[in-house]
């Protein structure tokens, strides 16, 4: 029996290459099966909806009868915290995002991300120095995974002596986002719940410390801010910190890993990057189009009926926006299945668009640029040991669970 496109997307067997499924989906720009979600797969329609105030990101607007295949497959995040601004609509979204952005980016803190450049470079260098045996390297476990969580610790202001504990909680929470058909769901759920509770209590304690004795870090700035929007409550601060950890960490792991996998499959580009470190900027932009770390945005819902391509999506229905499909839409990009860092027009959907465009995009870009340029420069004759590598179960945050590679040595 042939699977429906929706079930093909969720089927782990298709994780190494979902793009033929997306190509089939684009033949029906608004795809709907029985009581399932409305799946939007074409670039212009996705972009339009990302800017449409009638499409809500708040799951409380979903009709109670809305069918959610992701929740059934265990691929939806569970949390004990109130929704972050990512899952809210204006005006609540706008207030919290403005407050979170004050210590993170322009206009109030224009140099926060660029000011971390040397620290990021040092973290990357340290991880590469510590690789050890070059006959078999798991790029995920030894590099892509520890890199962004260390960066988030430094950004938030987690003391160095606590980083190992923070890493442990992050590992457990991240694992819970990736279903394991062989594991006991109750046991995994309890482990993830306990990790979230411990992380929440730790951060709540750190927030109180920073309110009394602020330091030069983002958590202190958020805990003591008294701007025009007032101050965040402790629960709002915890939700924002959790968003930075989960969204910022998981997406960057996939961006760096997918990036190195793509470069190893395109050795001419890898050689160019080694010789021209500045190529890292267009390489990362094309990667965000070609292999985006976030494949789709689920659980959007119309606040009123929205008509697209002759189909009316009713109020309260579940809508999926398949960003990765839009990024390969031939009506928007020439030769979309070709990885081309010289592509001149790369208005991709890799970071979304509109009011919910990725809050951490400047940091993620810099992390990926530094990581990939240093890996290209320092690894001698890198090569894949498995292609395709084993992929994570998660269909939303798509990336290899391991990336086994080898090289002939590490350059200084």
UniProtKB/TrEMBL annotation:
<keyword id="KW-0479">Metal-binding</keyword>
<dbReference type="InterPro" id="IPR017972">
    <property type="entry name" value="Cyt_P450_CS"/>
</dbReference>
<keyword id="KW-0408">Iron</keyword>
<keyword id="KW-0349">Heme</keyword>
<dbReference type="InterPro" id="IPR036396">
    <property type="entry name" value="Cyt_P450_sf"/>
</dbReference>
<dbReference type="GO" id="GO:0020037">
    <property type="term" value="F:heme binding"/>
</dbReference>
<protein>
    <submittedName>
        <fullName>Cytochrome P450</fullName>
    </submittedName>
</protein>
<keyword id="KW-0560">Oxidoreductase</keyword>
<dbReference type="GO" id="GO:0005506">
    <property type="term" value="F:iron ion binding"/>
</dbReference>
<dbReference type="GO" id="GO:0016705">
    <property type="term" value="F:oxidoreductase activity, acting on paired donors, with incorporation or reduction of molecular oxygen"/>
</dbReference>
<keyword id="KW-0503">Monooxygenase</keyword>
<dbReference type="InterPro" id="IPR001128">
    <property type="entry name" value="Cyt_P450"/>
</dbReference>
<dbReference type="Pfam" id="PF00067">
    <property type="entry name" value="p450"/>
</dbReference>
<comment type="similarity">
    <text>Belongs to the cytochrome P450 family.</text>
</comment>
<dbReference type="GO" id="GO:0004497">
    <property type="term" value="F:monooxygenase activity"/>
</dbReference>
<dbReference type="InterPro" id="IPR002397">
    <property type="entry name" value="Cyt_P450_B"/>
</dbReference>
């Amino acid at each position: 029996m042939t699977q429906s496109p929706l079930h093909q997307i969720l089927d782990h067997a298709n994780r190494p290459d979902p793009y033929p499924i997306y190509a089939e989906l684009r033949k029906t720009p608004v795809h709907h099966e029985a009581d399932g979600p409305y799946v939007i797969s074409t670039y212009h329609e996705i972009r339009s909806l990302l800017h449409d105030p009638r499409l809500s990101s708040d799951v409380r607007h979903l009709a109670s009868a809305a069918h959610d295949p992701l929740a059934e497959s265990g691929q939806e995040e569970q949390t004990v915290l109130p929704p972050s601004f990512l899952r809210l609509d204006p005006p609540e979204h706008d207030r919290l995002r403005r407050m979170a952005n004050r210590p993170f980016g322009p206009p109030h803190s224009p140099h926060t991300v660029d000011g971390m450049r040397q620290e990021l470079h040092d973290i990357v260098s340290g991880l590469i120095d510590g690789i050890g045996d070059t006959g078999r390297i798991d790029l995920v476990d030894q590099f892509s995974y520890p890199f962004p969580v260390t960066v988030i610790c430094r950004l938030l202001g987690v003391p160095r002596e606590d980083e190992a504990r923070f890493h442990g909680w992050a590992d457990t929470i991240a694992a819970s986002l990736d279903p394991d058909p062989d594991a006991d769901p109750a046991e995994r759920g309890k482990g993830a719940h306990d990790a979230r509770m411990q992380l929440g209590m730790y951060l709540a304690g750190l927030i109180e410390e920073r309110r009394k004795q602020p330091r030069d870090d983002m958590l202190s700035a958020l805990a003591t801010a008294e701007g025009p929007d007032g101050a965040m409550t402790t629960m709002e601060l915890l939700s924002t910190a959790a968003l930075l950890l989960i969204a910022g960490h998981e997406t960057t792991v996939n961006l760096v890993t997918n990036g190195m996998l793509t470069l190893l499959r395109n050795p001419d580009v890898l050689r160019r990057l080694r010789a021209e470190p500045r190529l890292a900027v267009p390489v990362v932009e094309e990667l965000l189009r070609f292999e985006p770390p976030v494949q789709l945005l689920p659980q959007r819902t119309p606040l009123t009926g929205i008509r697209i391509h002759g189909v009316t999506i009713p109020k309260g229905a579940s809508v999926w926006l398949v960003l990765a499909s839009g990024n390969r839409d031939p009506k928007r990009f020439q030769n979309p299945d070709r990885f081309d860092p010289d592509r001149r027009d790369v208005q991709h959907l890799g970071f979304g668009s509109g009011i919910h465009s990725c809050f951490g995009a400047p940091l993620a870009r810099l992390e990926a640029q530094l990581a990939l340029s240093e890996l290209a420069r320092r690894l001698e004759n890198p090569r894949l040991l498995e292609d395709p590598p084993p992929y994570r179960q998660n269909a939303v945050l798509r990336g290899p669970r391991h990336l086994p590679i080898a090289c002939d040595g590490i350059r200084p």
